[in-house]
Amino acid sequence: MIYKPHQQKLLKSIALFLIAIFLQFLFYIPTPVLSQNSNSCSSITVPLTPEEQTYARAAWQYFVKNYQPATGFTNSTGGYPSGTLWDMGNYLMALNAARWLNLTDQADFDTRLNKFLTTLSSLKLFEDALPNKVYNAATGQMVDYGNNPIERGIGWSALDVGRILAAFDVIRSCHPQYNDWLKGIVTKWQVARSLKDEQLFGATVLGDNKTLLVQEGRLGYEEYGARGYQLWGFSAPKAIAFEPFKLVEINGVQIPVDTRDFQSTNANNYVVSESYILDGIEFGLQGQLADFAARVLDVQKRRYDTTGQLTAVTEDNIDQAPYFLYNTVYANGTNWATITDANQPYPQFRSISTKAAFGWRYLFPDNPYAQKVFDAVKDLRSPDDSGYYAGIYEESKQPNKALTGNTNGLILEILYYKARGNRPLIASASGSASVSTTKPTENATPSNQTNSTVTTPTANQANSTVTIPTPNQSNSTLTTPTSSPADTSKITDVAVAPIPPVESPQASSNLKLKRPLTLIEKRYAEAAWRYFQANYHAKNGLIDDRSDFKGATLWGLGDYLAALHAARSLDIIDPKEFDGRTRHLLAALTKLPLFAGELPSRGYDTRTLQSVDYGGNPIAEGNGWSALDLGRMLAALYNLKTCHPEYTAAVDKIVLDWSYLRVVREGILSSASVSKEEDGRYLTRVNPETRLGYEEYAARAFQLWGFNVEGSAVGGEYQTASVEGVKVPIQRRRTDTNSKNQYTVSNPFLLYALEFGLDPQMRSLFEPIFQAQAERYRRTGALTASATTLIDRKPYTVHSTITGQGDAWVALGDDSQPVPKGRLVSTAVAFAYHALLPENKYSQELLQATTDLYNPSAGFYEGFYEATGKTAIGFTSSTNSMILQSLLYKVMNGQPLIRPTTTMKSPWWVAVTKGNSGRGLPNTAIQRTKLISDGSGSYWASTTKDTSLVTRTKVTE
Description:
By secondary structure, the chain is α+β, with helices and mostly antiparallel strands. Helix content is about 35%, strand content about 15%. Strands 5, 6, 7 and 8 form a 4-stranded antiparallel β-sheet that branches. Strands 26, 27, 28 and 29 form a 4-stranded antiparallel β-sheet that branches. A 3-stranded antiparallel β-sheet has the order 11-12-15, with no helix packed on it. Helix 23 runs antiparallel to helix 24. The protein is elongated and about 105 Å long.
């Protein structure tokens, strides 16, 4: 609350009883039975009229135009980067209202709130106890009321703390995924220091630099602030009580007035509208409080009846000196006083308050006077779409053109209150709310889409619901569907029993971490892991590749296994959860039907475990296999048994069930596809893999298991194209295959670098790919993190290329057709580049732009659109897995995530040694790659000799 002196409210006695009865009938406010439906926050029972939608959009534009992207805060007044905790509470209330009124989507809501809470969590506190009275909204620095930096601060306001605590309660109730974060912030603050003698106490700094605690609040705001404290378990019974107060007759109405006035306490005892309006829309007006509010409205009507001057008084910023005034019903012995915080009179600037008029209109919808004063201000919007003006000066009849978060935030709160059927925002929030990631009013599920409700298990299996958009798209990592998914809404998950407990499960992996995660890094890791909680099939242990489709590829399951390892290594999950999930996944892998009895098929329904096409339609025989997907899984399985050797036997049993006769041919990886001929026959075709970066990644994984795939491993000559003056690789020069649909994106090169390190050959590909993106940013200012991403609308898969089909910076669908304005900045790519190149300024810019793109219940979003900056809706295992792996890489001192095995006596190598398996196993029991450490770092490199698995090269100068 900007410059709001701290007022209090006191209750009188039985003397008011008869008048109270009369006024409550005159200004009756219905108090409906509160719904405990978990969807109560999104329940819009009285939708806004078209005219009201115009009001709401105008008010929201204030916050859009006054947003500070570096902090996530908003300006308290238009263009002025300053804000108190009261202003921050206004913004949170406005943001929540905007979400449920469909003024913003869930992705934008998450991005804004994540940035806000990240900054709020890190603010310097006054005396390390509570937030300073005011901060620079653009920088987060402690400042004085002139917005001048001040190292120590100027104290705290208990009323402002109460305001933001009320807002925190609304956020945690309507968006419970943020509850733990908010709880952590409140726990960090020493809230008890602002309580004394059962009252609220602010802190101020005296001239001698000493801190003085000062009782805050007068009748109205004191009770409101104390209720905010009460929501978080802090009791201030004297503050919540109305006493001490007296009745003062003004225009024939007995008005309750705090007896602690300016003359006796140096604090104003003003009576204004806003405190009663806030209490009404947030907590509900009942009993004596309802009576007081009715009196405060009635006395303003009586003044109009007497003078003809429309009256709606409360505190407001004004557009001229002294810039902030209290327009009151009564203050310090004077009726209708207009004063500064120092009790200096400015009657010439008394105004009709826009926010007060809105508040009275919707709190008392049947009151003719409330409607009349509302009509005077309802169109008082700035012509440049910057929000609502603060009001109209009574004397000059000119607009008070001050634009503030207080005015516009309260308007949004009020309209949300109306849309909820006049149900108080806080009184209705006692039940747990759902977490919607779509528009609140869009609850229909397309008939051709599988179950779109994602269950998010917590540690105690208490589930919340995450609703996700539902495109007709499967979850293929690398391809897109060619048919529509079947209606499988009645399918239920089949049960798979986990493999038996392993002997001597380890409490943790054998990784040596350089340092623990920072607090912020841990929050990111927890958010990324939430994807794997929200999309987990508890009956069979599988994870969906994307949140809007019940299906998985072997690549996606490899992502999951890698994420599982990272989450355990980072201590995001405990050993019990890791062991349970790992044994369940390994069991499920043994139950997947194999294509032609050889290898896992390209896609599976994660409920039935049956083979499906990329549209989700069952295909009993399967639709081929992907050598790339197989490589992803082999890398994850190898690392599992290296870092957690207790699972070695189970892992080797899985891979020994597969046949590699056709996937590895003459040193090249090949994939199988099935096509339908004109005569109706289905034919299988096996062709070499040529997708740039993916082929090299998969080949390195196959080498871990001893396969000779030199023809697919990184090396040889690559064709390049000039992009931003940089020679960027576009494909391998080869004569053994006709490469089609070639494009260059970052994903596979980053995954390779994180897991295998950058050998000299891969580095020569990796560096120009990064350099071209950094050069584009330098030239155009457009952040670039080129990747393949999955989104919630056609074409569902977008390749934001560095170069594709001969064009630079083109966005392509899987059909190689351009996607206009479809380029995305990938969240996963940003995290990975920063992990690999932490000192690079461009990678730092990328990370800063994407760290807030997550929903704490659903994981990280895919990224944001280059053209609009809007968040791309979509949650996938690949994005969230890469983020977890990037965070693990950071704390492993830049070591490759794939660690070398310590034994060659496992069942796999025993079987290879025996030979004649009929399964296409390697010819010799040696790895075809080894871990090398030299002056350029650590990396895996190809080898054809039986050498030590770890080689160190001495570097001399």
